[in-house]
Design brief:
With 250 residues, this protein is α/β, with parallel strands linked by helices. The protein has 2 domains: 194 residues, Spore Coat Polysaccharide Biosynthesis Protein SpsA, Chain A (Alpha-Beta Complex), CATH 3.90.550.10; 42 residues, no CATH class. Helices cover 40% and strands 24% of the residues.
């Protein structure tokens, strides 16, 4: 299918998100850029998410709902949305995150003015952190430091082509950005805060870091297929950067 010019297809997986889902949807409805479709994939939620999705779709024809009978995980849910996306641009927004009102308008202008096909922005977290966007990121940089927030990404698929997310339960967004940059192209950052990311509270900080480190090692060895020495080379850089950012005792 030929993508509809200027339309943004927004991909949102939903799983038991009744507490935050309406805020997410409202942040899309409030966008000053009107030419979008919101594809919400209900990943077999057991709470009131389904009712909220039905209500939203009945009120705005730009909202579409895909319902799954069994839980498949965020990557598969996103890929089903990508399969049915009709827009020139692909954007991602999880069901516990939200966009600022001018997000799409400003980011699309940034893309068009500079002829960029893959962009991301700065964003804030619910714990008060500001995650800045560097002016550009290449494949090697991204291997050791994922500075691209999923909620901030917009991709022009007329320029980049169709793509899918690797179907892993965790870290599939990072792997997707790597696959899009592997040919030597860049992702360009708009260093303006245009969204809010919900930062989780589950588990201790040290436990979360250990999980992140294990996932990073898995990505190098299994998902990316790196050999032992190449994996160790990049993992050492990843770990050193993590210590630099958070400190030994953080």
């Amino acid at each position: 299918m030929n993508p509809i010019k200027e339309m943004v297809s927004i991909v949102t997986p939903v799983y038991n998100a009744q507490a935050t889902l309406q805020t997410t949807i409202d942040s899309v409805l409030a966008q000053t850029y009107p030419n979008w479709e919101l594809i919400l994939v209900n990943d077999a939620s057991s709470d009131q998410s389904a009712q909220l999705l039905t209500q939203a779709a009945s009120k705005d024809k730009r909202i579409r709902v895909i319902t799954l009978k069994e839980n498949l995980g965020a990557a598969k849910a996103r890929n089903l949305a990508l399969d049915s996306a009709r827009g020139q641009y692909i954007a991602f927004l999880d069901s516990d995150d939200a966009w600022d009102t001018l997000k799409l308008e400003k980011q699309l202008k940034f893309m068009k003015d500079n002829q960029y096909s893959f962009t991301f922005t700065a964003y804030r977290t619910t714990k008060g952190r500001i995650v800045k966007a560097p002016s550009s990121v290449d494949y090697r940089h991204l291997l050791v430091n994922n500075v691209i927030g999923c909620l901030s990404v917009v991709i022009d698929r007329r320029e980049r082509g169709d793509f899918k997310m690797p179907e892993y339960r965790k870290g599939q967004d990072h792997l997707t950005w790597l696959s899009l940059l592997k040919n030597g192209t860049l992702a360009y950052g708009l260093n303006e805060v245009l969204g809010t990311y919900t930062e989780g509270n589950a588990g201790s900080l040290s436990g979360n870091k250990l999980k992140a480190a294990k996932r990073q090692w898995f990505n190098y060895r299994k998902a990316l297929g790196f050999g032992l020495f190449k994996s160790a080379y990049y993992f050492i850089q990843y770990a050193a950067l993590a210590l630099q950012k958070h400190g030994l005792n953080a």
